[in-house]
Amino acid sequence: MKQETCKNCKIIRYSPWLVHFNTGACNGCDIEVLASITPLYDPERFGVRLAPSIRHGDILVVTGALTKKAGERLRRLYDQMPNPKFVVAVGACAVDGGVFNKSYSVEGGTDKAVPVAMYIPGCPPRPEAILDGIVKLLKKLEESGDKNE
Length: 149
Hints:
Blueprint: E1 17-22, H1 28-36, E2 49-50, E3 59-63, E4 66-67, H2 68-80, E5 86-90, H3 92-96, E6 106-108, E7 118-120, H4 127-148
Parallel strand pairs: 1-2, 1-3, 3-5, 5-7
Antiparallel strand pairs: 4-6
Helix pairs in contact: 1-4
C-alpha cells in the first residue's frame, strides 16, 4: 500500500473535504455516511465537510463492493483528486467485498483499484465509527506530518 507523502498534509488535517462514492452497494453504508456528516454528530468541529466537486476533495470515502465497471470509475475519480489524497473504505463490502465477495461481477474491496489509507468495517458501520475512522486518519496525518517537518 503506497501512502501519500505528508509534507503538504498540514492543511488537510485541519479542514479535510470529503467526497463520497458508492461503487454499488445496498445503500446501508451510504445512509450512515450521510448521517455522520449531519449536525447531530457535528463533523465540522474537526473541520470535516463534503466537497462540492471531486477536484476539491481531500479524502475519498468509498462504500460498496468494487464491481468491474465501478473500479474503472473509481480509478478515474481518484486520478482527478488533487495531491495529497486519501481513501477511506467504509463498510464490509468496501473493505473486502463483503457478502458479495465471490460474485462474478465483484472484484473485491476498494484496495483492488486504489490505495486505501483507512478501513472502517461494519455492515453498516455506525456514524460514530465512520467519524472516528476519519478522525483517526487525521491523527495519523498529524503524526506523519510532524515526522516530516
